[in-house]
């Protein structure tokens, strides 16, 4: 069974938060389930990778803004996709106080990781 993959946008400040959402469905109860892949943190402290399985519709979240379809994956490829996403390095700390650590490097935030 193919799983749809989306980019989720939720309310954030000063920029919205983006995450990858792979939608699965519990075939016994026909309820929406899925996996969210994201980084958390900020450019002042650095970011860490986070994966969580959910059993609710992200569109029901009060902070939900949008869900953009990007692709489908085969069910048997889900573990491989998790490995690939895990291998993408989250953005590092890019500031020390108000000063950029490496002014020649472009800023990488959560949206760029996603």
From TrEMBL:
<dbReference type="Pfam" id="PF20174">
    <property type="entry name" value="DUF6540"/>
</dbReference>
<feature type="region of interest" description="Disordered">
    <location>
        <begin position="90"/>
        <end position="114"/>
    </location>
</feature>
<protein>
    <submittedName>
        <fullName>Uncharacterized protein</fullName>
    </submittedName>
</protein>
<dbReference type="InterPro" id="IPR046670">
    <property type="entry name" value="DUF6540"/>
</dbReference>
